[in-house]
Each structure stands twice: as structure tokens, then as C-alpha cells.
Amino acid sequence: MTSEKENRKSLAMVRTQTMERAQGNALPIEFRTLSINVTDTHRSNKGTTSAFGLKGKSKPKDEGPTSETDFFATVDFHKLTPAEINLRFNSNETLGLEQVEAERRLRTNGHNTLASRKPSYVKKVLGYVFGGFCSVLWIGVITFFICWQPILQDDIIPTNLALAILVIFVILLQASFSAFQDFSTARVMSSILDMIPTDCMVYRDGQLIKIPASTLVVGDRVHLSLGNKVPADLRLVQASNDTRFDRAVLTGESEAIEAATTSTDDNFLESKNIAFMGTHIVQGSCVGVVILKGNDTLMGRINTLTTGRKVKPTIIQQEISRFVRIIVGLTVFLAGMIFVVWISWLHQKYPEFLTTPTMLVTLMGCVVAFIPEGMPSCVSLTLMMIARRMRSNNILPKALTTVETLGCVNVICSDKTGTLTENKMFVTNFAFLDHESTPDEARSRLEKETHPKTLPQSDDSASILALRQLQLATLLCNNAKFDKESLNLPIAERKIHGDATDSAVLRFGAQVADSSVLEPCFERTQEIPFNSRNKWMMAVYQGSAAQPEVIKTLFGSDMMSAGKTENEKDSQLVLVKGAPDVLLPFCTSFLSAASNTPQSLSPEWIAELSRIQMAWSRRGQRVLMLCKGRFVPYFAQSATGSSGSGLQEELTRQGLQELCIVGLVGIMDPPRPEIKDTIASCRRAGARFFMVTGDFGLTAAAIAKQIGLFTSEREPDTYEDIVDPTRKGLKINSEGNYDDLGEYELGRPQFREGSSLVLTGSDITKMSPGEWNLVCAYEEIVFARTSPEQKLKIVTEFQQRDGVVAVTGDGVNDAPALKAADVGIAVVSGSDVAIEAADLILLGGFDSIPVAIRLGRLVFQNLQKVIGYLLPAGSWSEIWPVLINTFLGTPLSLSSFLMIIICCFTDSFPCTALVMEQQEFDLLALPPRNAKKEHLITGRIYLQSYVFIGSVMTFFSNMLFYMYMKEYTGVSFSEMVFKYGDFDYTNRFKDIDDEMFLNYYVNTGQCVTFVSLVIMQWGNILSIRNRRLSILQADPISAKRRNLWLFAGMLAALLMAIFVTELPWINRVMLTNPVPIKYWLLPIPCAVAVLLLDEIRKATVRAFPKSIFGYLAW
Prior knowledge:
Elements: H1 2-10, H2 18-22, H3 35-44, H4 68-74, H5 82-89, H6 99-109, H7 121-130, H8 134-148, H9 158-185, E1 199-204, E2 207-212, E3 221-224, E4 233-239, E5 244-246, H10 248-251, E6 257-258, E7 274-275, E8 280-283, E9 286-292, H11 298-307, H12 315-349, H13 356-370, H14 375-392, E10 395-397, E11 411-414, H15 416-420, E12 426-432, E13 435-437, H16 439-449, H17 462-476, E14 481-482, E15 496-497, H18 500-512, E16 522-528, E17 536-543, H19 549-555, E18 572-578, H20 580-583, E19 587-591, E20 598-600, H21 603-618, E21 622-631, H22 633-640, H23 644-655, E22 659-668, H24 675-684, E23 688-692, H25 697-706, H26 719-723, E24 744-745, E25 748-749, E26 752-760, H27 761-766, H28 769-775, E27 778-784, H29 788-800, E28 805-809, H30 815-820, E29 823-827, H31 832-837, E30 840-842, H32 848-888, H33 896-906, H34 908-914, H35 939-969, H36 994-1024, H37 1045-1062, H38 1064-1070, H39 1078-1081, H40 1083-1103, H41 1108-1112
Parallel strand pairs: 11-23, 11-28, 19-22, 23-27, 26-27, 28-29, 29-30
Antiparallel strand pairs: 1-2, 1-3, 3-9, 4-7, 4-9, 5-6, 5-8, 10-30, 12-13, 12-22, 14-15, 16-17, 17-18, 18-21, 19-20, 21-22, 24-25
């Protein structure tokens, strides 16, 4: 334990956090990613330095460091002086690089860009053309071509050629949908490249010029100012005293990092003289030399970690692949069975019935019949329609196949800063030690007792003067500034230049009362900016020459003013801002709000300060303390002479001497207003909601309680409770397990209701697989102080325990976890690298997540309906004519051409309307789908589509075929069955010869079967759109479930049937014929019968939900 504390101190990665110090906890880590490993490597790898800034053993030129840790442990750019940096990179400290040299380096080393994964378009095209059902259909194409060749047939049969071309068209149609899905609708975003700013200012040939950031080269001198984004990893060689960088995009922490021009740490990642690509400069200005660019930067290596992971198939892709395997397996089985029967029996006994070419066509007819060729395109249409609905709800899906996965999500891991919270800090409370209040209360009081434009007067009440002192402390001890162009806006809407903490304090000071007449009364004379060593900021002021009385009224008559010194030993005002536990040792008194006088800081008042501090911290607030003191320039000059460094030391000594506490402010990053309802909705949907943040445990737990993530009043469990569950009074059962720790069902963990847990990053590194089993059983978890690698581990651990994980985040540090999650969700206001790694982008509020989950479940429900609609006519009713033809020896009642038309055209039109269906019941009230058990296609759907609806449609369609044959040829079913081509023509009409019977009337009968299936699908689509409700309860016309597109789809299918059967050139080529009007009308009552039979089934299920009918219902 001692060793671990020493490690943390030596890393210089500590940041003051009031409550955690007060409780004696380990100091929080400031920048965790890679740092500990890098420092450990420093200790164990003492090597020599090469000419390129790498230490340790030399490596061959073509071998890089073995890991990211090795790389950052070996660079030493931060330890070099500016002169050494210029010498190493051959750069002039005033002129920069020569333009010619920069162009040479650009040609040699390439552009300053981040690599992105480039897809293999050859593999993609091959996957489109030969993937899924297409691989089997190509066999059909080859077979049809072979059967068309004269070598196997005396006469060329153009129908086989037309079938081959038609199947190729179907394959290309499916491939086009897949390509459209990938390249058009998915709109793969390459916004990670935008992490590099478009332009930057560099010194070339002594001139400060603007160039594209992509053309930066190593050795360039880059000039940065307020608001700039760092274009590469830079070694700072010049920086103003107030220069600060916002590293939140990397670390997840909102505290700005001050810049330095000398090394502040042995660890490259910790040193403040390094500016990392993608971070922002929020204060000051600086000059840095490019030391790493593109993929070599820290940002580039995180990008490599993100894009280097193998893409995992989504759940819907796995489900469709499973369905394809089942259908192809059944197809091969049926084709094999037919072939075995033919070669062992039919070909021997009835050689003229099925010749070899005819048999091959029959086998391919079996393939064409059983495979629902239209399913891939209908699935793509379904996903596209749901994706469009998501976009209308401010959700942008980057990949259609991810949409359905949302319906299976049972774990949501969300970042805090900028995701659960607004990433906008505000002062919510302030306090004197003897009085607590809020900004609104203070403003109201000042408005009642003073005039807004009036300066403080000595006859103002004591409480008003004390409040004015606190207001001035927040305004003056501050380096943030309002943007001049936004000064006409309300204070809450003004843009501020500065870090988040200073911005919050500045906004508070301006909101309490009008400061426009007050601030000009003070002039700053000295400043010590905040830094990680001191952890406080100090500003020294004197009164202005124009208004010298204001500083005396508020802070004492001996205060000095500009241009007027009554006593050379007068004091200047010192204001100090920092964490209470840092400044408290320097304080001897506090300002009383009641009397506006300093009071002695007794142990009782220190306890009161600690109480306020603890109460605010438990509400998720960051506590800052503002103090005042005195600085006497006369004594400083006497002690230091003209030495600048000595003056700074004297300022620090005097300024921190006998400080008086003016007051405390509580700063909070407010939760998003919609987040509480969002978490409740996600939990109602059966998804556990966890927080994964780089923030500190106490603050994160407080935020968790505010937003409803922690619902229990008791203190959350910690890692110690995982190691020893008996601490919470849990009992061990007879099998040696803890009774209430939860168990797992395959695919859906059963968790402990009402249980909450807080774990830190250091806890995660120590956890065993058994401890992870216990952790994954908790309902409410906050993972605090986590690094990107630990966030990634959290995701993978839950996935290994059957969790379907969604991760939300907005920073670069979230990117690896976003990429590894089953669904990565980024906020549109987040970093570009997070947006690149995510699957869904939230364009609006966080409350879009429950909507996305509902739509994800709706797409699964609609896909089941789509497949349930396609299978009866597009598979089951098409295979039976082939089987009847083969085994019963009757004419084929449906041709291969008409089978393809049903699958790819007439079924597709109503199917497109079916994807427009709204939810039948509240989908968020259902538990997440168990992806390991509840498949897209289940035995119940096969039962519904094949055995029930499919058999009814098969019976009616074949019945109408034989009715037509009897009516128009005189040959009944009994005269054709078991004849195998030797039909009994005894009762055949005399004007019909054999050729006319086989080539006209059988073809027309096939069209009758085709028309009957098209029309009976109308009844099927009206029944399949409701799983439980009657059509009378949810008809397609009423407003609640209105879907008029169904009728448009039916009409389109009817027009396609007319087109196929009535167009003369199609009749000639594809051997179709016009259908008598009677057989256009007879299928209508058959469609009604399909609808009524399913209505009876639904009524039975509703009446007897626990009966065998309820069990078998899909």
C-alpha cells in the first residue's frame, strides 16, 4: 500500500479534491491513460538516449516500440531545452523552418493526418454478389445456362436462358440493396480527420503564415492563441504566464492544465510543456515545436486503438446469417431428397417423365421455390424505414444493421461529463461561515437594498458589504473574460474565454449584481496563476486612480490606490482562490456576514466549514474557497531589492500570511434536464444504466443520486464489499454461494434489485473473474476514475457475461469503449473521434435513447412480421408444387419464373408497406430480447408461416389450379396423379391435343396458381400485422394504427400480376398466359378465409393465453 502511494506521488498526477482529502482517501489521478505504465517503465528501463529522443536498447530501423507504453516511456522531448529541441529538429528559434526544407520533409514523411480503416472494395463486392442466398442462386444460374445449351436439348429453350438472366437480375438486385445499405444509407462518417484543425499559424522563413494543418512537418514552430485547437503534439518553447490547455477531450476532466516551458515530470504524458493534438488552448498564447504528428501522436495512437479492433457482426447480421443457413440447409436437403428419388426410382421407372435437363431445372426450381429471394431487400427496406424514423427523432444511425441491436441492450454504460451532465459549470451555492445562500437570493437582496449602478457606501448594511466583498473576490481573482461580442446577451448566455471553473465563478459574480461600475475601481498589480504545484490562484489589486475610495470602503482605509500613496506602508489587496483543504492552513480568520468583520477561526468554525464542504460535495458540487489578505510593496522591496524572482517569493509569503476566509462557492456541472426520465425509461425497458467516468468517486456518486441512477438511500457498496460480502450481512447458503448476489440465465443476467456499487479504476485493475461475476449482478453501478483501457475492459467483461452493452460518450477517452460496445452512442456535441467510433449519433437530447431502444425493438418486431409474411407464399407454397410434381407425378402447378416474381416483386410491394407499421403494444414495457434464445426466426414463426398460413394457401392455390384444369381441359386431379407424364386423357376435351394441354393450359394453370397466391397474400398481410390484436381492434384505417400504404402495396402487387400475365412478349418468352376473370375473383374469398382463420387463432390465444394455442403462438 505504501509503495502504491509513493508511485502516485511520484507521477505528479494529483489534483486537489476537497472531500476525498478530508476523508483521507488517496489523491485522484489527473491524467490516467498510460501514465502509470509509462512511469513504471521509466523505473525498470534505465537506458541510453538515442539521437531521436528514444531511450533504452536500440532497435532495428523497421521495428517500432513494442507497445504504446514503450513508446511514451522512451521519448524525452519534454526533458530537452528549447535550444536542444531546435538543434535536434534543425529549426531556427526565430525563423522557424525554411519553406524548401518543410516541403522536403512533407514529401519524405507524409501529411499530418490520422489513418482510418480503408475497406477492401473487392471483398465487399464479392460479399454482395456471392454472400447469403446469392451463393446458392449462382448454382441456379449455371444450371439454367447448361439446360439452355443445345448439347443437352434438341431445341434451344429460351425460357431457361430467360430464367438464368432473371436470377442474375435478382442477385444484382440483392447486391444493390446491400451496397446501398453500406455506402449510401449508412453514410460512413470520416469525421475523425476533423480532429486536426483546418489551418494553423506557423513560422516559415521568419514569417508567421497560415497553412493547412495537414501540411505540418516535424520541427515546425506553431503559434497558438486563445481558442485554437492543437494541430499536432508540440513541445512548448514559449508561453505566457496564463496559458492553459483543456485536455478534457483526452482525460474527461474539465480542469484546465497550465502550460510550462520546462519539464514538470519525468513522464512525457504528465509534463506540462507538451501540448497534445486535439486539445484546446483556453487561455493565453504560446509557441511550440512539432515533435510528433499524425499517427505518432497520442491522439493518433488512440485512433489506432479504436480503428484497429476487428468489426464484430451485429446481432441482426447474426440472426439473418442464421436464417440463411437454415433455409439453405433445408433447400439442400429437399433438393438432395428429390435428386435421390429421381436417380433411384423415377429415372429408372419413368425415364420420359423427368429427363436430365428437366430434372436439373426441377432441382433449381426447388432452390428458387424454397429460398425467399426478396427477403434481403425487404430486410434492408425495413431497416432503412426505421433509420428514417430515428433521424426524425434526432438519432442518426451510421449503420442500418446496428438499429435492431438496441432492442437487445440490457446494459447502458454512460460517460458523465458532457453526456449525463451539460458540461457547463455553474455556481449553485455560496456561503460565509455563518450564512449560506444561493445566487438568486443574493441578487434579490442586493436589488432590494441597493441601486444596481451605485458603488458600495460605508453606510450600507454589514451583510451587503460582506456580499460585495465576496462578489469582488469572484470577479477579480479570475482570469476568465466575457467575450465582447456577447456582452449584450443575458449573463447566462454570454460566451466566456477561460477554463470551466473560472467561467462559472465569473458568471456568478456578474449575476449577483451589476459589476460594470465596480470592476473599474480596481487595478491588478501582481498575479500568480493557478498551477498544479500550488493549487491556488493569487491576484493582487490596488484601487484605481479614478475611484480610490471603493477599495477603502470595502477592505480597509489603509488600502493603496494608483497614483496616490498617503502612506508608503499602505497595503494592496490580495485575493486567493483554491480548494479549502489547500488554503485552510494559511487562514486565521473568516469574514462574518452578520457584522462584515473578521472573526477568529476557532475549531468550531473549522468544523462548520467542513460540514458545508461535505454537504456540498455530497450533492456533487466542487467547493472553492475565496480568501483575502494583504501585500505591502514597501516591505517587499526592502526584502528583495530589484530581484523579480525574489519579489514573487515575497508575494507568496506575504499573500498567504494570515488569510481571512471571505466565503465558499459550490460549483456544479448540472445534469441534463431530461436525464432522470431517460434513466427511468431505460430501466423500465429492462436495461441497467451505469455511469463510467473519469471523475472522482464521491462526486460521481452524488451526481448518480441526483439523476436517479442511485435509488437507494443507503451508502453504495465498494470494492471491499465485493471482496468480503459478509460486510453487508449477506448469508451463505448450503452450496457455499451468497444467497442474494444474483445468478445468471444464459443471455440474461439476473441482478440484485436495489443494490448499488461504486468502483474506481484502481479497483478494476485488481478484480478477478469471480469478482467480476459479483459486480455484474449489481443493478446500479458507478465506475469512477477510469481510463480508456478500463472503460474498454468494463464493456468486454459485461459482454463476456451475456450483456448486450450500449456505451454513450463524447470524448476521445470514450472512443475505444464506444467501438467495442454492441452499440456505441455519441453526442453530436462531443469530440469527432467519439462520433467516428460510435454507431448512433444523438443529434438532440439524451431522451432520444429510450426512443432509439423502442425503435430498435420495433424493427425486430416488424422484421418478424416481414418474414412471417414472405414465407407462406414465397417459400412454403412454392415448394409444394415442386414436391407434388416430383412425387405425385402431376404437372408443375407453378413455374420457376412465377416463383421469382412472387418473391422479388409481388411480395415486396406489400412488404414495403408492412415496415411502416407502428408498435402494437408498449415495447418499452417488455424486457430486452434474449439474443441467445429469442431469435429472429423461431419455431413458432415457422409453425405460423408454414404449417398454418402456408398450408392453407398451398391448399387453396393448388385447388384452384386443378379446378382450372378440370374446367378448361376436362382432366381432373385423379386423372393426373401418379401418372408421371402418362396422363389419362379419356375425359379430355377433344379439341385439345397433348402439346396444347402441356404448353398452354398447364402454363395458364400455373398463372392461376400465381394469381391466387398474390391475392391470398392480401389476407395474410392484414393478419400478420397484428400478433395478438384483432383487425377490428387495430385496423389499418383508424388513426392509432393507420397504415394506408398496405392498400397501395396490394394494388402494386395486383398490377404486377396483371403485367406478368397479360403482356404478350412476357407470355411468349416466359410461357405465361392471361388468366380468366373468374380466377381473378375466386382467390378473394380464399384471402378472406386466410384472414378469418388467423382471427380465430388470435381470439383463442387471447381467451386462453396459457393453453397449447397460447404456447405455440408466435
